[in-house]
Structure formats: structure tokens, C-alpha cells
Q: What sequence folds into this?
């Protein structure tokens, strides 16, 4: 079955630096991959989606890459701010692909940005 | 425009009891998915409802059941509660089962089983 691994260790970085989070998956390549942000005690919030035929996607200070050969996605936050501190979740779709809403989530990576 | 709303926000039950959690999807959305999130873990897919029917189901026992109403709101029922059912239960809505659609999550219902 499909498995997802994200950085298990919390990531601590200095304000202004670029945070890079990793999402690795096994088995088949998904049709698309999503990234969510989750604050403590809150529901996840959608950030970005990248499709299998896209190598890179950007949104403001966020950038996602998708390498189906390596079975890996990287999530970058440039010019990080303390307000970026949260847990970031990677999620993949599961076949049948035309049934949106059924996702496998990684365990999340906790990011802490220090002033 | 109201987002996804869930109730109750917190509840405590004892083993063997039954619980019902409720969800109203984002305005205009017709598909509701339920997820269970244990502490320190990512959300796990329970099931999805569309057109008042369960369309997909994750690896959860029959103790977990649900319902979708004509107004697209949904309920999650868990019978014979176990200690391991303690978790944050998240409802997510989307617009029709489509490829790659983003999910809009509610704030969740925190269930504690004693």
C-alpha cells in the first residue's frame, strides 16, 4: 500500500532563511500531491497542489517541486517568518483518481521559525 | 461565507458508549469526507459521502458509520467506543468528487474515550 514519509524531526530555522520540507512516497506515483498547514488544535488548511505532469508550483513565498522519478516532493518557504511556525502535511490521492477527497496524509513536519 | 463547521468541539465518553459527530460543509460543497487524526499523526481517511451515499471507505471497522443529509450536512457515528478511538475527528468538504480538488477542513471534534 502507499506510504508517505515526511521529516520526522522538527525543523528549527532562523527568521529570513528558507525552510525546506521533504515528502517521500512509496509504490505508485499519485496523480497529484497536496500540501496543507495545520496549527495546534485546528484543522488543516490547503496551501498548494501540484500535478504529476508539473515539476514546480509557486504561490507567493511557497514553492513545491514534484519528482516522480525520486518519488519525492519538496516544499520550500522562502524568507520564513515566525508566523510560518506550524505543522506541514503532505497528502497524496488514492485510486480511483476521479474520486476527490480521499487522501493519504504523511505524519507532518513541525516547523519552528525563530526571530 | 461560512466554512466547514463541526460540532461538538470537545467531548468525553467512556468505553462502550456511542458518539455522533456533526458536520456542515462549506457553502456550495456537496461532498463530505471524514478523517481521524491521532496525536502526532497525520489525518487518516475514514469515509466519503456524496449524493447521500458512502462512496469510498478507508480501513476502519464497521463500528464507524455515517450519513449524509439532503442539505449535504453529515454525521459520523462510532459505536462501542474503544480507548484507541480517542482522536481529533476532522470533516472536510469539497465540490463533487473531482480529480485533485482541495479539501476544506473544519476545526474538528476532539473525542476523549476514558
A:
Amino acid at each position: 500500500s502507499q506510504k508517505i514519509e515526511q521529516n520526522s524531526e522538527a525543523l528549527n530555522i532562523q527568521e529570513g532563511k528558507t525552510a525546506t520540507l521533504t515528502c517521500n512516497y512509496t509504490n505508485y506515483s499519485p496523480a497529484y500531491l497536496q500540501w496543507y498547514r495545520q496549527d495546534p488544535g485546528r484543522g488543516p488548511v490547503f496551501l498548494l497542489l501540484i500535478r504529476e505532469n508539473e515539476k514546480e508550483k509557486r504561490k507567493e513565498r511557497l514553492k513545491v517541486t514534484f519528482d516522480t522519478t525520486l518519488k519525492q516532493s519538496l516544499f520550500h518557504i522562502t524568507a520564513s517568518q515566525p508566523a510560518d511556525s506550524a505543522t506541514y502535511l503532505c497528502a497524496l490521492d488514492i485510486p480511483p483518481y476521479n474520486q476527490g477527497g480521499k487522501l493519504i496524509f504523511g505524519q507532518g513536519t513541525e516547523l519552528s521559525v525563530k526571530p | 461565507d461560512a466554512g466547514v463547521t463541526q460540532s461538538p468541539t470537545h467531548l468525553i465518553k467512556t468505553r462502550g458508549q456511542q458518539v455522533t459527530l456533526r458536520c456542515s460543509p462549506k457553502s456550495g460543497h456537496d461532498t463530505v469526507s471524514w478523517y481521524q487524526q491521532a496525536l502526532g499523526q497525520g489525518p487518516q481517511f475514514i469515509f466519503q459521502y456524496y449524493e447521500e451515499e458512502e462512496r469510498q471507505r478507508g480501513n476502519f471497522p464497521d463500528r464507524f458509520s455515517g450519513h449524509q443529509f439532503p442539505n449535504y450536512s453529515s454525521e459520523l457515528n462510532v459505536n462501542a467506543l474503544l480507548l484507541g478511538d480517542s482522536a481529533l475527528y476532522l470533516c472536510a468538504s469539497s465540490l463533487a468528487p473531482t480529480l485533485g480538488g482541495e479539501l476544506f477542513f473544519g476545526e474538528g471534534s476532539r473525542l476523549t474515550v476514558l
Q: What stands out?
A: Chain B is about 0% helix and 50% strand. Chain B has a mean pLDDT of 94. Residues 92 and 104 of chain B are 5 Å apart (CA to CA).
